């Protein structure tokens, strides 16, 4: 890690499992335990079927992410900001735990949106999720926009939706200009996010992967780390901090 001053960090569901949020495809993942839930998180099904929306909102209301707290990996990445390393976090997660751990909001790019907002698919109005969830808890199974009556949707990218082009383009630029792309807890099976690894590699940068299971990019990676994320990430951040400090002292 010597001489590294610019690091892009791509995080997936695996970084939040230590916070009590299950991943999606692991042995105890959301889709593994209940494959039918995939429909509820698919845009076309969500928009077409009130019953799917009702199931979605019931599941969303009880999601463990609402009660989750940042863990050691989130905190280590936030602390890295205070060193001589320029850190940008590209996250597939919608839980907001990077920001709650202390990472600057302007340094966190939420590729798949945020679960803390709801957007109207009719007029585009955004509002805090809590307002809609309170309505669901009170018995409104398919809440509609109070302004126009349109279908409300969490401000996250559901299956079948495209990433915002501006967000995707910025992520590519960050991956192309960072000396290291550190991937944490991502299966790298979801496009176009997974292709950020190819962007970094094609630019001649190092790819480091911290993940429990194999990924499609393990072979070209400079390093693949299988130890628990809560152990590996603080260790890597400490190494980057030391390297930055050595560079400053030199």
From TrEMBL:
GO terms for molecular function: histone deacetylase activity, NAD-dependent; metal ion binding; NAD+ binding. It is an enzyme of class 2 (transferase). InterPro entries: DHS-like_NAD/FAD-binding_dom, NAD-dep_sirtuin_deacylases, Sirtuin, Sirtuin_cat_small_dom_sf, Ssirtuin_cat_dom. The active site is at 112 (proton acceptor). Its EC number is 2.3.1.286. Gene3D superfamilies: SIR2/SIRT2 'Small Domain (3.30.1600.10), TPP-binding domain (3.40.50.1220). It comes from the Bacteria. It holds the Pfam family SIR2. Keywords: Metal-binding, NAD, Transferase, Zinc. CDD domains: SIR2-fam. SUPFAM superfamilies: DHS-like NAD/FAD-binding domain. Zn(2+) binds at residues 120, 123, 145, 148. Residues 1-250 form the Deacetylase sirtuin-type domain. PROSITE patterns: SIRTUIN (PS50305). This is protein acetyllysine N-acetyltransferase. It comes from Actinoplanes auranticolor. The lineage of its organism: Bacteria, Bacillati, Actinomycetota, Actinomycetes, Micromonosporales.
